[in-house]
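Support reply, case 0932

Customer input (verbatim):
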Amino acid sequence: MKKQYLDSGKIVGTHGIKGEVRIDPWCDSPEFLCAFKKLYLDSEGKTSIEVKSRPHKNITLCKIKGVETIEQAEKLRGKIVYINRSDIKLGEGVNFVQDLIGLEVKDAANGKVYGKITDVLRTGANDVYEITDSQNKKYLAPVIDEVVIEINVDEGYVLIRPMKGIFDDED
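Our regenerated output:
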């Protein structure tokens, strides 16, 4: 089941003396997080904060409404920030990493189950799925059109056409 509120960063410190915080973004980029005017401090969406954000190098600087001093900002250090899935319009074929974790990975040709996605690694050229099998052995599969045939988050699976060498039983 898809989570409504997605963890998207962590407040790692303060910036200046007027209550700004530094957020380490866990999303695609600091710019992505800056698009939100409302963030949440819990995974149920009960505690919302109004924000004005701007990217700064690899972090997001964020001014939170009602937080005016460095002391107030310091109390937020270590908090996880969440975004509401409803506030985002993803493009066709784009998924949140959190939605991919736990999906079953199957062979597109014969339905053989290889394991589940346990992590998505960002390599620059393309993402790589970390697949963990039932014996807890890990495999890496590149997220390229030749390998990943179908991603079905709603049904809970990914179909792949494995390249030679990804799994032990391959040539």
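We compared this against your earlier run and they match. Two observations from our side: The helical segments are 30-34, 70-74, 97-100. The radius of gyration is 19 Å. Please reopen the case if you see a mismatch on your end.
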